[in-house]
Design goal:
Length: 304
C-alpha cells in the first residue's frame, strides 16, 4: 500500500516536471522568430544631439577696434562786431540759436544828439550757433571794437581719439568709424579719420587722431563716446564664430561633422573681432562647424 502511494506521488512529480518543460519550450519557440537588434544597429537618431552648424565659405572679414574718444570743438569760432558806434537798442537772438549769414541779431542806434533817429541792424557775418552773447540792451559800443556775439560753426565739432601705437599701421586718413554716446547708446553715428599726429606720446604710447563727424544738434562738445574704428578688411577668408572654438591640450579646436558624428578638429586663427575669428588652417570650404550644441568626440548629431 505504501509502495503504491510512493509510486503515485513520483508519477505526479514527473508529470508536473514534463508539463513545466513543455510550457518553457513553447515560450522559447515564440521568441525564435523575433530578430535580435544589437545596440550598434539601433536608429542613431534615438540618441542624436541636436546641433546648429556654420558652413565654411569664403567671405569678407571686417576687423574693428574698440576705443574711447571725446567730442571737442575746434577753436575756430567767429567774433561779431558792429560796423557803427552807438547804443544797442534790441537783441533778437540768444545763446544756442542757429543763425545764417545775413540774419539780424541785434539793432544799434548810431544817432548823435540833434541827429535824426535811425536804427541800424547788426547781421551775422557767418552761419553757425550763437556761442555767447557779449552785449546787452543799452550797451554803448564802439564800431569794430566792442565784441557783440561769438558764433561757432557746428561742423567744427570733431572726435579726438588716443590710438594705441600698435594700431598705427592699420589706420590712415579716410578710414571710416562709428561711435555711440551714453545718451544714445543704441544709435551709431558715422565718422571718418581726418588727421593723424606725426608723433607718439612717450608716456601713454598713443597717437592722437581726429575724426570728422556729421553735424548733429544732439552731439555736444565734451561728450565721451565709444568708437569702433575700422582697422582691417580681409577678402576671401574662412571665418568661424568664436563660440565654436574651444581649447584642447593647449591648442584651439572646433567640432566638425563627419559622417553624422562630431569630430574634433584642431585649427589656427588670425585676426579676430568681438564675435568672429579668421581661420588660417584646419578647415576647408564646405566644412560644417558646430556652433551650438554640447558634443564630444564621436557624438552622433542631428543638424537643425
Amino acid at each position: 500500500m505504501k509502495f503504491e502511494r510512493f509510486v503515485t506521488i513520483l508519477l505526479l512529480i514527473v508529470i508536473l516536471f514534463v508539463a513545466y518543460s513543455l510550457v518553457q519550450n513553447t515560450k522559447s519557440s515564440r521568441e525564435v522568430g523575433k530578430p535580435i537588434v544589437p545596440n550598434s544597429q539601433q536608429d542613431p537618431t534615438d540618441a542624436a544631439i541636436n546641433v546648429r552648424v556654420q558652413v565654411m565659405e569664403p567671405t569678407t572679414f571686417v576687423k574693428t577696434t574698440d576705443i574711447t574718444g571725446e567730442l571737442v570743438r575746434k577753436d575756430d569760432s567767429k567774433s561779431l562786431y558792429s560796423d557803427v558806434t552807438g547804443k544797442i537798442t534790441a537783441i533778437v537772438t540768444k545763446r544756442g540759436d542757429t543763425v545764417a549769414a545775413g540774419d539780424v541779431v541785434a539793432y544799434v542806434n548810431p544817432s548823435t544828439p540833434g541827429a535824426v533817429y535811425r536804427e541800424r541792424a547788426v547781421t551775422a557775418t557767418t552761419g553757425g550757433v550763437i556761442q555767447s552773447v557779449d552785449t546787452y540792451t543799452g550797451h554803448w559800443i564802439t564800431a569794430d571794437t566792442t565784441l557783440l556775439f561769438t558764433i561757432a560753426d557746428p561742423s567744427d565739432l570733431v572726435l579726438e581719439v588716443k590710438l594705441p601705437e600698435r594700431y598705427i599701421s592699420m589706420v590712415s586718413v579716410g578710414v571710416p568709424a562709428t561711435f555711440t554716446t551714453v545718451a544714445w547708446p543704441d544709435e551709431p553715428f558715422s565718422a571718418e579719420v581726418t588727421y593723424i599726429s606725426s608723433s607718439v606720446d612717450p608716456l601713454s604710447r598713443t597717437v592722437e587722431i581726429e575724426l570728422g563727424i556729421e553735424p548733429d544738434d544732439r552731439l555736444k562738445s565734451g561728450m565721451f563716446v565709444s568708437v569702433k574704428l575700422l582697422t582691417g578688411v580681409f577678402e576671401q577668408v574662412l571665418v568661424v564664430e568664436k563660440e565654436a572654438i574651444s581649447s584642447y591640450l593647449g591648442e584651439k579646436a572646433v567640432f566638425t561633422i563627419k559622417g553624422g558624428e562630431a569630430r574634433r578638429t584642431l585649427v589656427t586663427t588670425g585676426s579676430e573681432s568681438d564675435s568672429q575669428a579668421i581661420v588660417t588652417s584646419g578647415l576647408e570650404v564646405g566644412d560644417q562647424v558646430v556652433i551650438a550644441g554640447s558634443v564630444v568626440e564621436g557624438s552622433t548629431v542631428h543638424i537643425l
